[in-house]
Amino acid sequence: MSNLVVTNLHKRFGGLHVLKGVSFTIDGPELIGLIGPNGAGKTTLTNILDGAIKPNSGTVYLNGERIDQLQPYDVAAAGLGRTFQVTRSFRRMTVLENLYVPALAMGREANRNEVHDKAMSVLEFLTMDHLRNEFAQALSGGQQKLLELGRLLMLDPDVIILDEPFAGVHPKLMEIIYHYIRRVNDEGKAIVIISHQMDSIFSLSRRLLVLNYGDLIADGPPEEVKRDAAVIEAYLGAEEGAEQATGA
């Protein structure tokens, strides 16, 4: 069971204080939405969690192991994986070959038959086995998102961060992505979804984390967060937010 403990993260870029003491815990297979206005610090937080950048202070522990000073490949090996807003598949490789890459890159080439069997199992899980010999560049935007999820599943992570998984996706395929996010979560994976599509976030998430100018201003169930005055103000502005919060 996953346990991610983020404590008092600060990140500065020159004179810009991007994260200001962010703390939260993910305990077990939670399904969490991470939201906030543009410039809130979501990307910076994600890049710290996956090892791409280091915090100025604070710690991140995954299953009791400190990971905030590790390189991204070591973070992935420890059990945290992410997708990207702009998909990063190997476009001139087949879907099946794309799934091989993470496992082989992590040094699991000793038994290639096991890697192949795992890849076929992931394709079956995502109902993409009919696409296994298609080149990644031929996939639709939604299929690219599913392929990225499949590559993460090849590493069997405990915590999965999905960065804008619905961006540019056809509404019909979006429902399919919803289904697989829930299914992966039901398999015991903790999932954090970053999205500007509020309908999707409120539909899927059981808990919301809200960042604003580097501060974590809310953490709780979606219905509770939706009524939070600080959240309303962050999204709508101080004057209009005050009216919403008071029912004016």
- What is the percentage of strand-forming residues? 15-25%
Class of secondary structure makeup: alpha/beta
Oligomer: single chain
The largest pleated sheet is described as: 6 strands, mixed
Secondary structure: helix percent: 25-40%
Q: Spell out the helices and strands N to C.
A: EEEHEEHEHHHEHEHEEHHH
Unreliable stretches: 238-248
* Counted beta strands: 10
- Cα Rg: 19 Å
- Sequence of strands across the biggest β-sheet: 6-7-8-3-9-10
Highest CATH level, the class: Alpha Beta
CATH superfamily: P-loop containing nucleotide triphosphate hydrolases
What does it look like?
It is built from 10 helices and 10 strands. It is of the alpha/beta class and 248 residues long. It has one domain: Rossmann fold (3-Layer(aba) Sandwich). The protein has a 6-stranded mixed beta sheet with strand order 6-7-8-3-9-10, sandwiched between helices. The chain has a 4-stranded antiparallel beta sheet with strand order 2-1-4-5, with helices on one face. Strand 4 (57-62) and strand 5 form a beta hairpin. Helix 3 crosses helix 4 (112-125) and helix 3 (95-105) runs parallel beside helix 5 (141-153).
